[in-house]
Specification:
There is one protein chain. By secondary structure, the protein is α/β, with parallel strands linked by helices. The radius of gyration is 22 Å and the shape is globular. The chain has a nine-stranded mixed sheet with strand order 12-11-10-8-7-6-4-13-14. The chain has a three-stranded antiparallel sheet with strand order 1-2-3, with helices on one face. It has a two-stranded antiparallel ribbon with strand order 5-9. The chain has 16 helices and 14 strands. Helices cover 40% and strands 13% of the residues.
Length: 450
């Protein structure tokens, strides 16, 4: 679909299918769906647009450029027990990287607590996500932090799942920890090829057992890195996870920040077809069973259309959330805008054991990431959906071209799934792609139904 923008602040018309046109103001993300023969709907959309457009532009600007740091990704260790083929952390770091001891992690959490208390989050707990490499290599340390600081922070954990036992699953559920488990395929051969962990297929069985042990826990999501090795199986993976009561799966195209990951990049047309099948499979399973399974990154894209300020994932907004809404702290204490920058030279904003978090946020590398906006990317500035896709990811662009002001290598894929999102909105399926809590929290500012 050609999303070329003819005029940034008026309603451009795009043919969605033989029934519907999308009327879209690119700069304000005001849109309407109009039947192709309904002149009255077009006139009504124009009238509403003239009334609310300027206000939407101001709100979107604040959402994009406000610096509201609410989360820290903390890597308690940089070494890893696995050797995933496409990992954005360089192999030498994963083999020999440091790990924090209790004193160091306590220092990080105390500094974070002081920082967030100065920010004032209006009664909300700031978020600490234990990330990695594999945080459960130092499981005792991570679980100690969750126990000791549960009144201060909301915790998240991203893990490959191979080190989780039944007792761990119970602990995480009781403590209301948000948990992401990596699973790249329902086929153990494919998963084990991509994510090389000790134990091979036995490790795969431990991951599946852990997923089943969560038993529909709403704080669980399964994270799949999509490569050309597993792209054809996405719909069947959705079915596999739905059977195991997984509420959310993230189908993330592999980041090609590092050179060795580039051979794993799927073709955009193949990716779009497979992703569309997965979305349709999730929709069918949710409707037939009454038990929803969401594709989280697609749901966030739908939110980017129906409620742009309601987005939770900050990769598909320009500038992205790196160094603005969150930052990442390595095991050696380096503060980088996002974990994807860990393997790129020149993007440390300071060391948390020496410098303040405020200093990192105000540093030149962090500002460089915040300055990477679609208006400065030649290929993006004339695209009508630039504020829906956000041209992710700056680290990926930097790794590929040595220049962040480049478009995404997945540009055609994003254009396609945005068209898919509008198609499903036209079919009246929005409620199947959003969490109940998100639907409950949405406030309708304008809505015209004919």
């Amino acid at each position: 679909m050609d999303w070329t923008a003819a005029d940034d602040r008026s309603l451009n018309v795009y043919t969605l299918d033989d029934r519907w046109d999308v009327l879209l103001d690119p700069e304000r993300v005001f849109w309407a769906l109009a039947a192709r023969d309904d002149a009255g709907a077009r006139a009504e959309a124009v009238a509403v647009h003239s009334r609310v457009g300027e206000g939407l532009e101001a709100r979107l600007r604040e959402f994009r450029f406000g610096t509201h740091l609410t989360a820290l990704y903390v890597n308690p260790n940089d070494a890893c027990h696995a050797d995933c083929r496409y990992c954005y952390i360089p192999p030498e770091v994963r083999r020999k990287g440091p790990r924090m001891d209790r004193k160091q992690l306590e220092a990080v959490l105390e500094k974070a607590e002081a920082f967030f208390s100065r920010q004032g989050l209006a009664g909300r707990k700031p978020v600490i996500i234990f990330h990695g490499s594999e945080p459960l290599v130092v499981k005792d340390l991570v679980f100690w932090a969750i126990r000791e600081y549960s009144n201060t922070f909301a915790f998240g954990l991203q893990t490959d799942g191979t080190l989780l036992d039944d007792e761990d699953v119970l602990f995480l559920k009781e403590r209301h920890v948000s948990v992401g488990i990596s699973l790249d395929s329902h086929d153990p051969e494919v998963h084990c090829y991509l994510r090389r962990a000790p134990g091979g297929k036995r490790a795969f069985k431990r991951i599946v057992r852990a997923i089943e042990g969560f038993d529909g826990y709403l704080g669980l999501n399964v994270v799949t890195t999509v490569t050309h090795h597993n792209v054809e199986g996405l719909a069947d993976l959705v079915s596999f996870l739905h059977e195991r009561k997984v509420p959310v799966v993230m189908l993330n195209p592999v980041r090609v920040t590092q050179p060795y990951a580039r051979s794993f990049q799927p073709d955009c047309s193949v990716l779009l077809h497979a992703f569309t099948q997965a979305v349709r499979r999730a929709l069918d399973l949710s409707e037939r069973s009454g038990r929803p399974i969401l594709i989280g990154n697609f749901s966030n894209l739908v939110l980017g259309i129906v409620a742009p300020e309601g987005r939770r994932l900050m990769c598909d907004i320009s500038p992205c959330g790196g160094g603005r809404c969150f930052l990442s702290i390595t095991a050696s204490g380096e503060m980088v805008p996002c974990g994807e920058f860990q393997g790129l030279a020149g993007f440390s904003g300071g060391n948390v054991f020496r410098d303040s978090i405020e200093e990192a946020v105000g540093s030149t590398p962090f500002q460089q990431v915040r300055d990477r906006v679609v208006e400065r990317i030649e290929e993006c500035r004339g695209c009508a959906v630039r504020h829906i896709c956000g041209a992710p990811c700056p680290a990926e662009a930097q790794g590929l071209a040595g220049n962040m002001l480049r478009p995404s290598p997945y540009c055609d894929f994003y254009r396609g799934i945005i068209a898919l999102a509008f198609q499903l909105i036209a079919e009246g399926k929005v409620h199947h792609f959003l969490r109940k809590a998100a639907l409950k929290d949405l406030r309708v500012d304008y809505c015209v139904v004919r």
